[in-house]
Design brief:
115 residues, mainly alpha, globular, single chain
């Protein structure tokens, strides 16, 4: 089975059955990626429809799994959350972001140098 792209993962997370909202989803994903880059969790990379999770080059598997959760939760929050869900989603991704900062303090991730 082929690895799922980031966009496919986000479509599943937001229950978006087709590609009609891909541009909006990718805009949100790239905004979240910028924030994660500022936290030091990922190297800044523009996510396209074909980008795979392995393309993020995150060496710490634990961080990668949390990055997936943060992206998923934040995009759901921005894209399609009802008022009743917003507080819960906000608390969840805020908790993950705090834990990423703690993990990075304990085990810094040195991003690969690109020429």
């Amino acid at each position: 089975m082929a690895e799922q792209t980031i966009l496919e993962f986000i479509r599943d997370a937001t229950s978006t059955p087709d590609d009609s909202y891909d541009t909006v989803l990718l805009t949100h994903v790239n905004g979240v990626m910028f924030g994660l880059h500022q936290l030091g969790a990922v190297t800044l990379k523009t996510i396209t429809p074909t980008t795979l999770w392995t393309d993020l080059a995150v060496s710490n598997v634990t961080i990668l799994e949390v990055v997936k959760q943060i992206i998923s939760l934040r995009v759901r929050y921005l894209f399609d959350s009802t008022a009743s869900q917003q507080g819960t989603l906000y608390e969840a991704f805020s908790e993950y972001e705090s834990r990423v900062l703690i993990e990075l303090d304990l085990h810094p991730v040195v991003p690969p140098v690109t020429p």
